């Protein structure tokens, strides 16, 4: 690829690989979302990189492109209640495993963004710190996880307008903390994050 700042298409090509990433781990409300994406050998997109480096408009434009061009993709969640029950790290792994479960095609290698992962039975994995800026499949997963979660939080904002979810998407902004102080938690808040 000519652009050295673009993520690589594949880590290896011996076996089919899926990129995995999450969104919403640091939020006080809403599920944690995870996406798994298997890209074809001819996949090209000069704008695709870590979703955190993209504008909301770019992410929203990339989402249908990824969904139409991926060989397989899936998005899954672990609820706020599950986060409270098992802790955020375990809930993140749960959502990631569910996304792999939901893929229409089974990969033989998982490229996971971050430095920790709970092994998925029968499939090898490799963790990459800042993986979403290193590999296209992880970047694609980061975009899907983030856009699907944002859409969910916008629906939640209509149900619970007092928290301003449409602005902060459940992240611990000052306005969000003040809304919790005023209105207490709703059923979508992570109760164990009270001290955060």
Description:
The protein has 196 residues and is α/β, with parallel strands linked by helices. It has 6 helices and 5 strands; from the N terminus they run ββαβααββααα. It has helices spanning 56-69, 80-86, 88-101, 136-159, 165-168, 174-183, and strands spanning 17-23, 32-38, 72-78, 109-113, 124-128. It has a 5-stranded mixed β-sheet. The longest helix is centred in the C-terminal third of the chain and has 24 residues, at 136-159. The radius of gyration is 17 Å and the shape is globular. The model has no long low-confidence stretch (mean pLDDT 92).
How is the secondary structure organized here?
Blueprint: E1 17-23, E2 32-38, H1 56-69, E3 72-78, H2 80-86, H3 88-101, E4 109-113, E5 124-128, H4 136-159, H5 165-168, H6 174-183
Parallel strand pairs: 1-4, 4-5
Antiparallel strand pairs: 1-2, 2-3
Helix pairs in contact: 1-4, 2-3
Low-confidence stretches: none
Element-level helix/strand string: EEHEHHEEHHH
User: At the first level of CATH, what is the class?
Assistant: Alpha Beta
Give the distance, in angstroms, between the N- and C-terminal Cα atoms: 42 Å
How many strands in all?
5
Identify the strand order in the major beta sheet.
3-2-1-4-5
* Fourth-level CATH superfamily: Ribonuclease H-like superfamily/Ribonuclease H
What gross morphology would you assign? globular
Number of helices: 6
The profile of the biggest β sheet is: 5 strands, mixed
List keywords for this structure.
37% helix; Nucleotidyltransferase, domain 5; 5-stranded mixed beta sheet; 196 residues
Short overview:
With 196 residues, this protein is an alpha/beta fold.
